[in-house]
Amino acid sequence: MVKVKFVIIAIIAFQTFMNVSYGSKSVDNKDIKKEKFIPIFVTPYYTAGKDETEAPKVKTYKGYDHLLASPKKEDLLQVVKQIEATPDMISPVTLFVLSTRLYDLGLKWESVLWFYIAKNRYFETIQVLRPEGLGSAPAAMDAFSDLLGNYVNGFAFCDIKKQQEAQLKALDWTKAHPYKAIYIEKLPAKGPDRSILHQTALQKLAQMNTEEANYFKDPTNLKKFIEQRKKNNMDKKFCD
Asked: Which of 55, 110, 115, 157 supports an S-S bond with 99, CB 3.0-4.6 Å?
């Protein structure tokens, strides 16, 4: 079980994408196993089971918790459907948990999309709201971004074209469904005009996506990236 250290890290930094996609170190072939299950916990929101056969403990949103803990794909897809219908106030934490469970049940590209949506929604939050009004949520969301990202990006970069498409789709979703919680007056903002802060956050997200896409358009970068993943057995661990 991976334990969480609640350390504030940079959100959606390009280097983070590179690190979790490359893998941290190479391992002997005999030690390689497919990463089909995400054994993380982020207190108090998510505690994975001891393995894929044991249900996780979920505490994000009462209306979804039992569905997110379910071993049935149709229950998770029901959550997706409900979130799509009423997305305005769904927290990034709930979206991170949804991504985790989609991965566990083999819906990996769906997991990738919702992971990027979760990261985007969190980025919206921290760009508009002051951290002192958010309690422990930023630390938890940093932990999800870091720990979950090791698995989701490990898989996503098996197919860079599809990964890039997922990021663009997530950005489009984020633009179409602004997180309404950032406009709650009782939550202190980083400036007097929340709308301007929000639009700036969206522009930054678009810029980061463009920078990452440009990185992979360079044949030298792409070759280096693929070679490093191969060296660290990332494809053997994550690719179907």
From this structure: 115
